[in-house]
UniProtKB/TrEMBL annotation:
NCBIfam families assigned to the protein according to its UniProt record, in alphabetical order: GGDEF
Superkingdom field: Bacteria
SUPFAM superfamilies associated with the record: EAL domain-like, Nucleotide cyclase, PYP-like sensor domain (PAS domain)
Pfam family, one: GGDEF
Limits of the GGDEF domain: 166-298
Protein name as it appears in the record: Diguanylate cyclase (GGDEF)-like protein
EAL domain span: 307-562
């Protein structure tokens, strides 16, 4: 009995209770936690002894701790536990030394008038998480927000705008011929250029304005609560800032910038819709001459959808053999003999019949498809010429058009020369046609090198549609070509007035002065052919002589030995 009584004595129970409280106090101290209890009727809070070490106050009224909580977070703590039996919240609070700490609090209401809770100091954990979030949301190269953060910010901005009834403007921008910087100066120069662009755009950052790098040379800007006029002004400022030169070693790096603009809710009320609208406007800006700001319109959307449909259909049609080369003869105006043929692509569309390039030109302008389409047609032409040679026939010089997009590829010239060698076709009987657009902007030096490489490789170069663009005599002096082609638009109307006739005479005179030959396109009448001959034009092509024809038609024409006397 005595033994049992000793074990159950109040003294032993008190010692055990003291030990439990001691270990609990140590655990709370080590874990930087405060245990507390709140009387909801009096709002008196009883806290564990270590609360002064953690938050600088002990037990007392709720208002004591509310004064130490960040003003934006006070309501979170004031209402804690009043609306639910179990809650978890996080808020900012002043520590004993005056520094801000983050407390995560878990509370349970154990009776209508009583709460018990525990608060954890998660400042270090919050800091680590913030650092991880910053890394995850920041573009490593430029230090700007990345696509992930941009997308979340756009969602939040649109949500606020729809609720508070104001506009959000979205701007997407990228750089025309940025690839040339990488190709010419190297990727380190490209990185330096993008960093410089980011620094130029950072001054635009303000409350309600976010600037981000989305990918490659594409940047995005979100601006809240701007009217249309202010948004347009900001778009122009974006273009000016992004268009500044960037110094890299001894080089001044520069590229034209195109900007697309869309607005919520006018053009779309979802992040996906607004991004799509801005991207369509950006595409239109680049497609309409580049280096400009382009607001979105509904008409653009329909045009872009149509272009995308064509690109997809052409892509699917290539492996099915739907695209084929046709050939239009070029006629010597003095002898009437065929000097060669220009290859003109045709598309045997499954439902629309035979289509000319005008119907699917967007496929040649698509960066992903253009080179593939060019290589496909080149291969088809080589196969036709091989078969033609097997028939004992000579087509003369074959002119092959290369789109501006395909010509911009750094390996286009080696690919052409390699293919000619592979097919063992005489390079002197092959001509590459390019338009004036390849001569401008940052394309200039790479274009000179490519044209020079072609001519050094024995391939002739013709400048197509001459007179319709911005090429000048200075360009002809720097860009060595073998032939100028007079555009059909001048030939159509040169008998109607003196203007077009004078232009044709001028082009012919220029060509002779530079030692080039000249070909007129679109000759449809006898009087046009005769007048061109009298003006000294070397060759011509057009419906007056022959329409573009299939490979089989070309064989029949060559076998006939036909001449076209004038």
């Amino acid at each position: 009995m005595e033994k049992n009584g000793a074990l159950g004595s109040p003294g032993i129970k008190r010692r055990r209770s003291d030990n439990n409280e001691h270990w609990l106090s140590l655990a709370l101290q080590a874990g930087r936690m405060v245990a507390w209890e709140q009387d909801l009727k009096t709002d008196y809070v009883t806290r564990s002894q270590n609360s002064e070490d953690l938050i600088g106050i002990g037990s007392g009224p709720l208002c004591d701790v509310l004064e130490r909580i960040h003003p934006d977070d006070r309501n979170i703590r004031a209402e804690l536990g009043r609306n639910a039996e179990l809650e978890e919240v996080t808020f900012r609070c002043l520590g004993p030394d005056g520094d801000v700490i983050w407390l995560a609090t878990r509370v349970q209401r154990i009776s209508p008038g009583r709460l018990i809770g525990i608060s954890f100091d998660i400042t270090e954990l919050k800091s680590a998480r913030d650092q991880i979030d910053a890394i995850a949301n920041t573009d490593e190269l430029t230090g700007l927000p990345n696509r992930l953060y941009f997308r979340k910010s756009l969602e939040d901005a649109i949500s606020r705008a729809l609720e508070e009834k104001y506009d959000v403007s979205l701007f997407t921008l990228d750089f025309d011929y940025f690839k040339d910087i990488n190709d010419t100066f190297g990727h380190d120069a490209g990185d330096a250029f993008l960093k410089g662009v980011a620094e130029s755009l950072k001054p635009l950052i303000a409350p309600g304005v976010l600037v981000a790098r989305l990918s490659g040379d594409e940047f995005g800007v979100i601006a809240e609560n701007l009217d249309e006029t202010s948004a347009t002004m900001l778009a122009r400022k974006i273009a000016r800032q992004a268009g500044k030169q960037v110094r890299y070693k001894d080089h001044a790096l520069w590229a034209k910038v195109s900007v697309g603009m869309a607005r919520c809710p006018e053009h779309a009320s979802s992040p996906e819709g607004l991004i799509k609208a801005a991207d369509i406007a950006l595409f239109e800006a680049k497609n309409s001459g580049r280096n400009q700001v382009q607001p979105y319109t509904e008409k653009m959307g329909a045009a872009v959808i149509e272009r995308a449909r064509i690109v997809e259909e052409v892509s699917l049609g290539l492996p099915r053999g739907e695209l084929v080369p046709f050939y239009q003869p070029q006629i010597d105006l003095n002898t009437g003999e065929i000097t060669g043929f220009e290859m003109l692509a045709r598309w045997h569309h499954p439902s629309r019949g035979l289509l000319s390039p005008h119907a699917f030109w967007s496929a040649f302008e698509d960066h992903r498809l253009s080179l593939r389409l060019t290589a496909y047609l080149f291969d088809k032409v080589m196969q036709d010429l091989r078969r033609l040679s097997g028939e004992g026939l000579d087509a003369g010089c074959i002119a092959f058009n290369v789109s501006n997009i395909a010509f911009g590829h750094p390996k286009i010239v080696p690919a052409i020369l390699s293919a000619l060698r592979s097919f063992r076709y005489p390079v002197k009987k092959f001509e590459i046609e390019v338009t004036e657009d390849v001569l401008f902007g940052r394309n200039e030096q790479p274009a000179i090198e490519k044209l020079t490489s072609l001519r050094n490789g024995g391939v002739s170069v013709a400048l197509d549609d001459f007179g319709t663009g911005n090429a000048s005599l200075s360009h002809l002096r720097r860009f060595k070509v073998d032939k100028l082609k007079i555009d059909k638009s001048f030939v159509d109307d040169f008998n109607a007035g003196k203007g077009d006739r004078a232009i044709i005479e001028g082009i012919i005179g220029i060509s002779k002065g530079f030692g080039m030959s000249v070909t007129a396109e679109g000759v449809e009448k006898l009087d046009q052919a005769i007048a061109l001959k009298q003006m000294g034009c070397d060759t011509a092509q057009g419906y007056f002589f022959e329409k573009p024809m299939s490979y089989e038609g070309m064989i029949d024409l060559l076998r006939s030995g036909k001449k076209y006397p004038l």
